[in-house]
Amino acid sequence: MSANHVVAVLVLEGAKPLDVGIPAQVFSNRPSMPYEVRVCGPAPGLIAGGDGLSYHVAEGLEALEQADTVFVPGYRTPATTDPPAAVVDALLAAHERGARLAAISTGAFALAATGLLDGKRATTHWHYTRRLAARYPLVRVDENVLFVDEGDILTSAGAASGIDLCLHLVRRDHGVGLSNRVARRLVAAPYRSGGQAQFVPRSVPEPLGDLFAETREWALAHLAEPLTLEALARNARVSARTFSRRFVEDTGYTPMQWVLRARVDLARELLERSDLGVDQIAAQVGLGTAANLRLHFHRILGTSPTEYRRTFSA
User: Fold this and answer.
1) Topology at the third CATH level for domain 5-186
2) How far apart (Å, rounded) are the C-alpha atoms in residues 202 and 199?
3) What residues have CB less than 8 Å from 85, skipping those under 6 apart?
4) For 234-263, what is each residue's pLDDT tens digit?
5) Residues 146 and 196 sit within 8 Å (Cβ to Cβ)
6) CATH superfamily entry for domain 204-314
């Protein structure tokens, strides 16, 4: 058994190239990454993929027996094609052994076929959410999020949200510092929450999207200062009411919920890479007092700043 966390990427017939490549790239083994990737299929050999590409995998389902995390990339015709029975059995066995299962895009259909998503929240690419709900009515399909974390089973929306899911897992395993380094390597946004809305084509364009992105960047640079809804709206040059409504549409959070999570996220990074006391960190991230930081830290992350530092500090 590898000393690193083993990530198996399970390639099914019709697999989408980007969905296969994302976990393989994010978790690729290097000095800073305590992961090992194994790309496998229902059987060793050639697997016909989507978009004119095929895959030659060296391992079959036996790779899942050693995996700590199993990724199922999206694949073509998920609403009409059941995964092979052997694949379903191997996913169930991996989960029973303690492996966590994760799907990108339509890979959620394969996880749903195991029954492990029954009664749980899940998502998939917005184009397939209604079909997932119709085919697996016991799954609580959420079409308005980038990814869903149910602990030992996770699902994500379209391809780019697979990056968000992978970064979320790195952050969960090893903290914000490593996750941010991986994001920089990928030239990706360091943090988009699972609750952020999927991009769904709309008949009315959103001309203020770029302006709001600039306001979010401005807010991140001013977290230590008092940030009010009015101050954010003034920076965006719209009314507070318009800013609040469109911000929720863009991110899945109210402006002040987003600011709070950004402050907690900055506190996490300071806990990892500095020796500052909790009261000093609370002041630097705009939460005022150590008690206030502890309250919001526990509410959002389910742990204390001290425990977090003990777990993730270098």
Assistant:
1) Rossmann fold (3.40.50)
2) 9
3) none
4) 999 999 999 999 888 777 788 999 999 889
5) yes
6) Homeodomain-like (1.10.10.60)
